[in-house]
Amino acid sequence: MADVDLPSPIRGILLDAGLETEAPPERRIFTNRDLNLERIGLIGFDMDYTLAIYRQDALERVSIEATVDKLIGRGYPEALRTAEHDPRFAIRGLTVDKQLGNVIKMDRHGYVGRAYHGRRVLASEERRAVYREQRLGHEHERFAPVDTLFALPEVTLYAVVVDMLDEHPELFSARDKPSYAEVYQDVRECIDASHQDGSIKDLIKANPERYIERDPDLPKTLHKFRSAGKRLFLLTNSYFPYSDAVMSYLLGGEPSYPDWTAYFDWIVVGSKKPGFFTRSEPFQELDRSGKRIGAPRQDVQRGKLYEGGNHSALQASFDAYGDEVLYIGDHIYGDIVRSKKSSGWRTALVVQELHQEIAVRRARGMTLREISSLHRLRSEIAEKISVQRHLMRALGRIEPGDVAASGDMDVAEATEMLDATKVRIKGRFDRLRRYEQETTDTLERRSQEVDEAFNPYWGSSFAERHDTSRFGSQVEAFACIYTSRVSNLQFISPSRYFMSPHGSLPHWL
Ligand SMILES: [Mg+2]
């Protein structure tokens, strides 16, 4: 049955009344684990990439420019300034192999499905030769996970420098030629420095509209939850002056709220997550201009503004159980894994990439269905081939004499029977092999088509070949619910019961 398309004035009235309406597909909320909003009394928000949706292209451009400046200051080639970089090269969920200068994408089992050295794709033999025996993910010295959108420019830039190092080593004469691992370290440090010294943040503060999307649905979404009796808090690693500028831009100018701070019962800036959840740093109270007032303390009060702090003191101030708190963030580890493990908070992950992911899945729905049936077909053929192969080997070991004895016939007759059977089985085997090859070819072609649409280098962030990607499996394992942006909550009732789809194993037909 087709959904009724509500005219927007009517939809607006229903939304304002807190009633649920059908969200556009790109803005739906997806459930991994049951979550009853009726039982949630507090909702916390991270700021960067959660409340504030950055314009990734513009932010990457300035991040790379600021970082290149600093790298050149460290003796890296001037040519970096004019080197081309494709922002599509980096996506969340990749892993950098610092030792070899590679960027890789893994499936949920840690199998490396794609790899680039610099920006040169590794052919499958080359990739398997390097990563076949390698169990990935735990050697922090060698591998760096790319788990926030903030980290994308460093991947793009790392690949550019690796290529330059391979193709034009002479450009590095101003300094000792760095190893791939040193390049990574330098890029990291320079990008961190650009974040810390204000090179990037000052630009954003001066022109927020250029770097951050102002989502008109955000203030009303927060208002809706406040009206339903939920208490809201902000918990961000950004410090006050920057948070103040960004939040004023996002939530300022609403008639019923004097300023953005009025939306929140607690505000914690400079929180140093993930350490916030495990350590016991004191809170420092700030006044509305960001000036420190009073001594550091271990207790907090509602309605005040704090810097630093720790989870247990904040939780004590909530006067609620951990599972009555929903925390919404974009960082799998810093926001979601840590808060869930250390505090028992329920979690919602903001994945802005979902918007494009869902748009592509909808546009290519038919091809994706074809891919999944071709995949099932291929595994069925492979099973049959394996049976025939086993049969051929067994036939090869049978002597005509044995057949003659078993069938009460002479040896010439038995030989003929045995040979004819072998020919028949071989014929079937060859037909199956050809069928398998055709299926594989079509599957490859179709997969390539949709991969192009997701991302020409890496395909979908959430999938790798025919399985969930490492990133996809983390989203599934750690986030109770996930969605493309905070304001998607406007489409649901504040007492919504999110029910997870029934888990399944391959044999649960
Ligand atoms: Mg964030």
Tell me the CATH superfamily of the largest domain.
HAD superfamily/HAD-like
Number of helices: 17
User: What are the low-pLDDT stretches, counting only 5+ consecutive residues below 50?
Assistant: none
Number of strands: 20
User: What percent of residues adopt helix (DSSP H or I)?
Assistant: 40-55%
Approximate strand percentage: 5-15%
CA distance, first residue to last residue: 26 Å
The largest beta-sheet arranges its strands as 1-19-16-15-3-11-12-14-13
- Examine the coordinates and then state which fold CATH places here, giving the name of the CATH topology of the largest domain: Rossmann fold
Structural class by secondary-structure content: alpha/beta
Provide the list of bound ligands, each named once.
magnesium ion
CATH architecture of the largest domain: 3-Layer(aba) Sandwich
The main pleated sheet reads as: 9 strands, mixed
Q: Count the domains.
A: 3
Highest CATH level, the class of the largest domain: Alpha Beta
| Overall mean confidence score, pLDDT | 92
**Based on CA inertia axes, which overall geometry fits?**
globular
Compute the gyration radius: what is it? 29 Å
